[in-house]
Amino acid sequence: MESNSKMQFYQDIIKKAHDAFREFLTHLPEDILDWTIHESLNSVRWIVEHVIHDQMWIANVIMDNSEEGYHFEKSIKQYTLDELIEKYDDVFIEIEEKFTDLKREHLLEARMYKDFSMTVEDWLYEYIHHLNQHSGELGLILSAWKRKKRSLK
After folding, report:
1. Class of the CATH-defined domain 2-151
2. What pTM, to 2 d.p., does this model score?
């Protein structure tokens, strides 16, 4: 029972993090995709591409000790917001399927990135943290974008 509850905990947290990120995506207006708060910061489109690529990359490190991320079949600039959300959903389903094979006994196994080693459990924390970090970033961008729109009225 213990092993199931710990793995269920991680699966629940990962699902909640994905749901939160997706919720931010569904509330974005289409014309915000290429907007940035400042010229030195990333656009929303870049953030979404980065999250999709890197979440798959981290999942592959966890499950296969491989450093392969998700690669888009066409230029990210060609995607509409709805297409990005659909792609995000597809990648999340693929990641969820990968994680079904994860068992408690895997949590202490080491995974390498370059010359750096972390346990699977630490990689799971990284996976969750990375997604939550960018959810917050989307929230900040959306707030700034709305303020800018209000100030132009």
Report:
1. mainly alpha
2. 0.88
